[in-house]
């Protein structure tokens, strides 16, 4: 039979089959095995270009489906104790789960997902504050390959989104590959073996390909406020909500007025005796068309073929409309007028309205949506302090303008360290430098995904790939298409390392920064998390989402240095000896 199988994969698969067979055969005495035929098996919609079936000890012929199941299971655990895989994904939020699903669909079943927390979910596991919900409609803020006709609201809440992620992971069998409570501490490229080595809280792991899905909105930012450490009551960040604290009848100070604040303030003011909001910068806020999904619409979404696709596509276009405006700031005025009208209708007090009116171009910071924030601020027991908090004295928070507020509880709605990839200081590339050291001027990548000098490393939701308008899941799925295409190209060509050329990355980033210059993100006269401390925009994609999807729709080998020849056995490569490990 003619073979359409990469010889390296064939070798690797035979070795793996040997390892898989050992526990079955060894008790009976000697182990003999031979491959008797090779075929490309399609199992459970996944393509396994593996040499199957194998005849073991002349008498044990595992059935194809059983072998597939065991092979997958053991591959995902790593046949030698769960520490090696073809692909390791770090992080089990939307990105890591999505990557595992798509990679398995494309035949890359030998993968592990390492997650430091006890369960998957990322953003939607961590952020359990009252009122937490998405601000992109749920039918767009979900995987296109796993639509959910059962969303209860147009913008689902945290618990529902977390449930959706858990259910999707289970449906697609990601659980088999998931290793929770495993924190990646450090990773480095082992040039001689052509593999990534990982130091984790669960010992050493290694893989040919490393996918970083650690999320931009992950590390809570806590403001440095003198005296706050001595505050006598509970102080916690919205992403680390303390559910043991009862807010009923308490005075709550909320520090911050961004995306989390506009959700949490309306939710907590119902119980709290008083709420003090410290606002450093006023935000542009449009009404949020959030409502329970009407029964008729729910029925259509469940029963009419294509209804969900139509809704998703309509929402995509609407978000793209915002994106177009943000790229052409002169068109922003009607949106600003709508936001001002929204403010005017909700807040009758002129001084409060003035304090809530932003003085920069809409879109320069993330545009917020809420129909409940302004009405909450207009209530007599909710007080806006249009100032940053500069100090805490006892149970009093002091504003930079001298304003003071007594509180029993402090909620930090102060966002995240967006521009810092959590592991950037601990991922070492070919020259031993970390990503952070390579990024002296702020994070930069090629198509937000690959970084020169870091072979076989793929960043999900990396630098300059997101925008202030569209769903992060749309961007993520485009990246996953690129990731799968890159790995398929690598597999077909038998390349050990795929490394974007420095000149390609540099030229791409020059064009990108040029294009950003005229967008509202760069030209809107505000400071935002889109900009690094050096003033360079390391967050935003400057073109349309359509262009982003097209750019990532196929792998472009000419942009990469493709290294061969095929490696010897990956599994015979020992875990890196200590002398190759970078210093701490
Ligand atoms: C409150 C809130 C609301 C949001 N709403 C929207 C929205 O409406 N629309 C939108 O597009 N975006 C929204 N976002 C952005 C959101 O973060 C992304 O849409 C998306 O969920 C990111 O998924 P992720 O998997 O990339 O990252 P995350 O969800 O952050 O997951 C990263 C995972 O990596 C794990 N991890 C990190 N470091 C390590 C390590 N060293 N070892 C092992 N594991 C590690 C973490 O524990 C985490 O589980 C929101 C963000 C927040 C905070």
Automatic annotation (TrEMBL):
Residues 563-584 are annotated as: Disordered. Transmembrane segments: none annotated. InterPro entries: FAD-bind_Monooxygenase_sf, FAD/NAD-bd_sf. One of its GO terms (molecular function) is monooxygenase activity. The lineage of its organism: Bacteria, Bacillati, Actinomycetota, Actinomycetes, Kitasatosporales. Keywords: Monooxygenase, Oxidoreductase. This is Cyclohexanone monooxygenase. Pfam families: Pyr_redox_3. PANTHER family: FAD_NAD(P)-BINDING DOMAIN-CONTAINING PROTEIN-RELATED (PTHR42877:SF4), L-ORNITHINE N(5)-MONOOXYGENASE-RELATED (PTHR42877).
